[in-house]
Design goal:
Elements: H1 7-27, H2 32-57, H3 61-91
Helix pairs in contact: 1-2, 2-3
C-alpha cells in the first residue's frame, strides 16, 4: 500500500527552496561561493517542480529536462569554482566587493 504525497507539498517545498535561494542572493553580496550555492539551490527548486509535474501528469518530458538542468548545473559549478580558485590565487580573497574591474 503506497501513500501518494499531494502535488501541493512538492510545490510548497520548491517555493521554499526558491525563496531561500533568492534571499541568499539578495542578502549575500560578498561571498562568491555562497552565491554559487544559492544558484544551485534555485536550480534544484526548478528540478523539483519538473519532477513533480512529470510524475503527476505522466509526462516524461519533465524528467528529461531535469537531466539537462543537472548537466548545466554541473558545468556551471565547475566553471564557477575554477574562476573562484583563479581569482583567489591572484587576490587572496573571494570578496565580491573587491571585484570591480577585469584588469589587475
Amino acid at each position: 500500500m503506497s501513500v501518494q504525497i499531494p502535488l501541493s507539498n512538492y510545490l510548497i517545498l520548491s517555493a521554499l527552496l526558491f525563496a531561500i535561494s533568492v534571499a541568499g542572493i539578495i542578502i549575500n553580496r560578498r561571498n562568491l561561493i555562497v552565491l554559487l550555492m544559492c544558484i544551485e539551490i534555485m536550480l534544484l527548486a526548478v528540478n523539483t517542480n519538473f519532477i513533480a509535474f512529470a510524475t503527476y501528469g505522466d509526462y516524461i518530458a519533465g524528467e528529461i529536462f531535469v537531466f539537462f538542468i543537472l548537466t548545466v548545473a554541473a558545468a556551471e559549478s565547475a566553471i564557477g569554482l575554477a574562476i573562484v580558485i583563479i581569482y583567489f590565487r591572484q587576490r587572496n580573497s573571494i570578496d565580491l566587493s573587491q571585484m570591480n574591474s577585469l584588469k589587475n
